[in-house]
Amino acid sequence: MNAAGENGRFLLVALRDGDDVAVAEYDDFLRGTGLPKDRLVHHPITSTADVLPDLSDFDGVFVGGSPFNVTDLVHCELQKHVHDQLYELLVSPIPTLMLCYGNSFAAFAGGGRVDRSHPERVGVSEVNLTAAAADDPIVGKLAKTFTGLTGHKESVAELPEGAVLLATGPTCPVQAYRANDSTWVTQFHPEMDAEGIIRRMGFYMDAGYFKPEEVEVISGIVRATDLGPAEQILHEFIDYCLARSGR
User: Fold this and answer.
1) Any idea where the Glutamine amidotransferase domain is (predicted)?
2) For residues 121 and 164, is the Cβ–Cβ distance under 8 A?
3) Are 239 and 2 in contact (CB under 8 A)?
4) What is the SS3 assignment for 125?
5) Distance, first Cα to last Cα, the chain
6) Which of these, 97, 107, 219, lies nearest to 154 by C-alpha position?
């Protein structure tokens, strides 16, 4: 990670609805990527006045999760604005890695189908790479089967035209895919370690992702799980972006 720390400059687009949880997510990305603060620019979008910075200033973009759901019957003005900003990333040539909500958004924006047939409660999920993943520059070097952290209410039921399924799993059929030549998305959260997801659970205790009485059990499970292989996707993405930029 020395090359990334010394040379790369990345953007984290944050869609969280509170200062504390936004800081927690930024901390997770700093730890997970190994990037110093001056190389990972935190850019929250919390109002319709917040827009993307000049993307040409960055080697790559990360998009964090969100409490929004594309399957909600009504999208508020902020969600619509978030979608406009994410669409700019989706059609931009700059490499972008979208996590969790990005899985739903990229399918929704590309004409795929998102429903609530395969939700996953907060915890660990098995992730299995597809045959197509072997040739992918981001996920091709990952273990063929690994464990990721998940917690979501909706899931991709049908990929958009042109998308390439990169990872599936027994509890959710779409765990990762390449939406286009510059955009990768995952349903699982590679940025968090065990303590990160336990901290994050504190912000969503009554949001329906888990039952409060399950916290102790979930904490024990995630602490006993090797999450390093899932985190590797962050480092592979950084390496890809730096190579693309000639760094």
Assistant:
1) 45-193
2) no
3) no
4) strand
5) 13
6) 107
Spatial separation of the C-alpha atoms in residues 172 and 76, rounded to whole Å: 27
Task: Give Cβ neighbours of residue 184 (< 8 Å, ≥ 6 apart).
Answer: 95, 96, 97, 98, 138, 139, 166, 176, 177, 178, 237
Residue 23, Ramachandran bin (φ over 0: left; ψ between -120 and 50: alpha; else beta): alpha
pLDDT in tens, 8-43: 999 999 998 778 989 999 999 999 999 999 999 999
Q: pLDDT at position 1, please?
A: 40
Asked whether the beta carbons of 169 and 126 are under 8 A apart, the reply is: yes
Cα separation, 147 vs 124, whole angstroms: 6
Residue listed under structure tokens 């292989």: 229
Q: pTM above 0.90? A: yes
CA distances 71 to 74, 152, 236, 243, Å, are 8, 12, 31, 37
Tell me the DSSP string of 130-178. Answer: -GGGGG-TTTTTS-SEEEEEEEES-EEEEPPTT-EEEEE-SS-S-SEEE
